[in-house]
Amino acid sequence: MSDEIVISTSNLVKTYSISSTSKVEALRGIDLSIEEGSIVAITGKSGAGKSTLLHVLGLLERPTSGDVFLNNTNISGMPDSVASGFRNCTVGFVFQMNNLLPEFSALENVIMPGLIAGLSLSTLRERGRSLLAAVGLSNREDHRPGELSGGEQQRVAIARALVMSPPILLTDEPTGNLDQKTSFAIQDLLLELCEANNVTMLLVTHDKDLSKRLPYQIVMEDGLIVDSGRN
Predict the structure, then answer these.
(1) Which residues partner with 69 through β-bridges?
(2) What tens digit of pLDDT does each residue of 1-51 get?
């Protein structure tokens, strides 16, 4: 981990309009600063704003106001035409639902972000096979998601998230659908890969045991950060 800040926000606000007279403030002025290589749990009760924060940081949603910087780039007002390419190269995502494409093989799913970016197919296949080997699935690259277990599918999703070598990984309940044994294995894999590649990871979780395993923790409540620091 270095002292370089790779994720920061200033007075970040996200408001949803429920009706013409009703609004919900999901984020209420978040100030955040994350150093390169940090592995951070984001915890709090349902509705605290955890997933909303992740979505705004990952350019899946736009803030109502405030600034968001990723790798020293202000993404808050970034045009959509630029945002998709920036997101594809800068941020990897792993969600509770792995969102694999059922008609494609494990390898094809892994390299999909690179194909979207227009990278060489031969380069991507080599990179994809290397990542599948890293997640223990070198013998499953031709299998489709329906032929894989839940844990194997999530391993494919992790490989896909890392195929563009992003400096930032955003994960939302990545082991929420898995049994305890598989969950621990996926947790170990995520930590190992992030540390080996100096990837900065923010991980949203309700799992107290998981959050305690991570070096840092941010606690959210009612759209605010109420506590943060080392575990």
Answers:
(1) 8, 74
(2) 567 999 999 999 999 988 878 899 999 999 999 999 999 999 999 999 999
**How far apart (Å, rounded) are the C-alpha atoms in residues 177 and 45?**
18
Q: Where are the alpha helices (DSSP H) in 102-223?
A: 106-116, 121-134, 150-162, 180-197, 208-213
pLDDT tens sequence across 156-180? 999 999 999 999 999 999 988 898 9
Decide if pLDDT at 53 tops 70. yes
Report how far residue 174's alpha carbon sits from residue 193's, in angstroms, rounded to the nearest whole number.
Answer: 14
> pTM above 0.70?
yes
Tokens 């506590």, located at residue: 227
* Residues paired with residue 168 on neighbouring β-strands, in sequence order: 91, 200
What the block records as the tokens of 21 is 């007279």
Question: Would you say 204 and 171 are in contact if contact means Cβ atoms under 8 Å apart?
Answer: yes
DSSP 202: E
| CA atoms of 138 and 193, how far apart (whole Å) | 16
What would the DSSP string read from start to end of 142-167?
Answer: T--GGGS-HHHHHHHHHHHHHTT--S
Q: DSSP secondary structure string, 3-35?
A: S-EEEEEEEEEEEEESSSS-EEEEEEEEEEEEE
Neighbours of 143 (CB within 10 A): 16
Other C-beta atoms lying within 10 Å of the C-beta of residue 188:
11
- What whole-number distance in Å separates Cα of residue 203 and Cα of residue 24? 24
Domains of the chain, CATH where assigned: 5-230 (3.40.50.300)
The answer to whether residues 162 and 169 touch, using CB atoms and an 8 Å cutoff, is yes
